[in-house]
Write a structure and sequence with these properties.
Structural class of chain B: alpha/beta
Helix content of chain A: over 70%
Number of helices of chain A: 19
Oligomer: heterodimer
Distance between the termini of chain B: 90 Å
Order of helices and strands of chain B: HEHEHEEEHEEHEEEHEHHEHHHHHHE
Strand order of the largest sheet of chain B: 3-4-5-2-1-6-11-8-12-7
Radius of gyration of chain B: 23 Å
Largest sheet of chain B: 10 strands, mixed
Strand content of chain A: under 5%
Number of strands of chain B: 13
Largest sheet of chain A: none
Helix content of chain B: 40-55%
Shape of chain A: extended
Number of domains of chain B: 2
Number of strands of chain A: 0
Structural class of chain A: mainly alpha
Amino acid sequence: MEFVALSDFRVIVAFWIGVVTTIITVIMLLEVLIMRLALMFREKRNRRLKQRVLQWLIPFIAGEKREPPKVARRDLSAFLYQWIHFQEILRGESKQRLNEALRSCAMEEQIIKMLRKGSFEEKLIAATTLGHLGEKQAWEPLLVLLKKPSPLMSMTAARALVLIDPENAQAIVLPLIIKHRDWMPTRLALMLKQANPLFQQAFLAQLDQDAVETQPYLLRLMRLLDVENSNTPIPLVKKLLTSSDDPELIASSLRLVCHPSELALVRGKFDNNHWAVQVQIAAILGKLGKPQDAHYLVSLLNSEHWWVRYRAAKALVKLPFINSHALKKLIASRTDLFARDILLQINAEKERRCLN
Amino acid sequence: MFELNIDWPQVVTFSEWFFLAYFVVISGFYLLLNLVSIFNLNLYMPNKVLEGLPQIYSGLEPPVSILVPAYNEQTSIVASIQSMLQLNYPMFDVIIVNDGSKDETLAVLIKTFGLLPFPEAYQERLKSKPVRGIYRSTLHPNLRVIDKENGGKADALNAAINASHYPLFCCVDADSLLQRNSLQGITYPFMEDHRVIAVGGTVRVANGCTIVDGFLKKVGLPTHLMALFQVIEYLRAFLFGRLGWSVLGGLLIISGTFGVFRKETVIDVGGFRTDTVGEDMELVVRMHRILRKNKKPYRMVFLPDPVSWTEVPEDFKTLKNQRMRWQRGLCESLFGNMGLMFSHNGGVAGWLAFPFMLVFECFGPLIEIVGYILMFIFYWFGFISWPVFLIFMFAAIGMGMLLSLSSLLLEEMSFHIYNRPGQIFGLLFAAILENFGFRQLNSFWRLIGLFSWIFGKKDGWGEMKRKKTHQKPAVVSE
């Protein structure tokens, strides 16, 4: 009655599937256990190392110089990682002391070797360390890493170069910022934020020189630069506001408007219907607006975009002649439900702030 | 007289070939996903080396609204919201939607967070049940509560989208806990690539963990076997299922427990559908269908490291209901968007992921259970011998164990969150044992879910019995 014999092809296939999967399962099981053992040993070593590093580094930062700990080659990246951790959180004199501490270990050559020949992770750690350290000998190997296809690697190298020698790095790094669309904007923004003002000015100049129309994503970074707080009009902003039709580009430029002399340029954009542009205009008028701008702001209250209505309402209540009475009158005169609701909300926010 | 003339040898031969072929194809697919995930994690993990360092905000992080739909969550809502309010992220707000709860959810929120009614300009861009009131917290400026009539989770999410003002929104379940850096991690893809419209994070099992004041203090494994099996299931589903599909460009599921979406895209496709129990998957499949049809460039991404923790059921009834609901949601999502399958511009989503989901996930339980039953019948009637029966079971269970262990290997290669030696043994034990009964039971529940979708009814909020044994109250210093 049996229709399937043990020698049947499909039974043999099923049998071998079972055997192969069982063998792979056992290998995986062993691999998991071996990886776990290795991890446990690594973590134990790292914990001990961390303790030694902290015992040495914390007094060093406080000004008490101590004998540096002995660091084995295999612990080097874990050691440097601890050091970078402090570099990223400390500022000013403490950073100099951290550099002194690392230099007292005389391991620059080892770190440069790591930068040249280490694994991907080791190279990242070495590049970050040498950047903070301002190690000029690392310049050449960093230039090699700058050409690597990994955006993270090339950006880390670029950041290190900017930290080591911002003036010389300008000519090399700035064109790459424009070229590398794969460089993550957040990391790029941080690099620009941490760079010195000269480098930031050079970045703006480079943007001005290049075809800015093709680089709208970079313009988002402009608002992070210190120039934002300088209260002096930026020539690039004028150029963009007068020549560009791209709403994103106009909105980015409007973000940098900081001086009353630029109001005419802003008013020139009143006919632009893009919501991002209208939000920025309303925000500017909230800071620099004059009574004659009230009419435009009132018209924005009917926008279908919540942020446009919100910014316009906020700007309106900031205008000196819009007191509580005028605001109530304005609310009562609105036939549009959106406009009335947003004014009521702004009014409530204002009242709550007063209460607080 | 009609005589039923069955050629039994042919039936046995055909069914064995059919089930063997099905088994080989599904296993091959899973192994492929596994290999893709291993390859991807090997590329991904080295990039994470500098992310453990203190992060400075760049100022470019997009603001996010965290949407928390809540229905009868009076016991767990406060801890969850407290954890959300303490997230490390430069700009976010938390919008809780009380979806007509019958318990004291709203009262608890009002009392704990000092809520006051606020005349907010609420614009109904997506249809939802009427909103009864909007509250703002006097203690946390970035916390708002929408009180509305009951309409289900999808309806609550639509109301929350209407109330949100930021370009991205993050869906989080009211009983879930986010890790402090989760939001920062999950928004990276939006900054890297403007085509990204949705990002899913990993969901892990909170049972057995120690949670204090809404924060995960110690990672632990559940002592209950059923929850332990689910730890393996979640690892398998997220670490190689979703990661693999994400790399291939065919991610069809982003969990409603933890996913970030671009608001305008979601509004453009009509928001969450309220007539399905799987609103999260349905939205993702619909976005694929509509955006592909309109030839709009987009990307949906899964990230393995931003983590949300959730409590899983520890009793049969709740687990059964959950799995039935998931299966119904899957069926509704696929059959409501059949236009994606083999569509002209369908890509990996339409030509590979969708058919795979339909055959192996939607109808898979049916084929699996029928396969098991037939094997028993063939053996019972003597059509196959005991050794042949055992060989087929050996292959099926062997493959199951291989897949479970490979997910554990992925976890060990990458995040090794369960870091005590006893925990790894517990997981290995569960990865092997779950193949002897639990997986088959799960398939059976999913089969019931499939039938209930074909014939049955739809329910609203998937209520779950929660134990909260892992949650401890905040330690208040005097």
